[in-house]
Amino acid sequence: MKKKPKPKGVKPVTDNDLVTVRRQWNSPEIAQVYVADVANPLWDVAAGGTKETAPEAYLYGYIMCDAIVTGSIAHSCLHGTAPHSIKVCILRRDNAPRIYNHFLEIIGPKPAMWQR
Description:
Layout: E1 18-21, E2 31-34, E3 39-46, E4 53-64, E5 70-71, E6 85-90, H1 97-107
Antiparallel strand pairs: 1-2, 2-5, 3-4, 4-6
């Protein structure tokens, strides 16, 4: 896939930039983690934790439960030893375009089967 040139004046995303995440697409709780702490980004319809099915595919990734810099998200360490990996949702509306687009560059556009 050929990368599009970045518009002039757009600061490149670094590992130390913050990305806003939620546990599920509709969760009111939000947190911020470093971009470098988000692993294995993917499109999916199943949220982490409760495995609730979303109405459409969203961008998800995995973070360690102790990677939160600010905020909080629904999570407990009752089912295993901490820290461990948890699935989080990355929404366009929560993030600056350059941050959200950084993850799109990694995983590509939403698959046609999940287009609305």
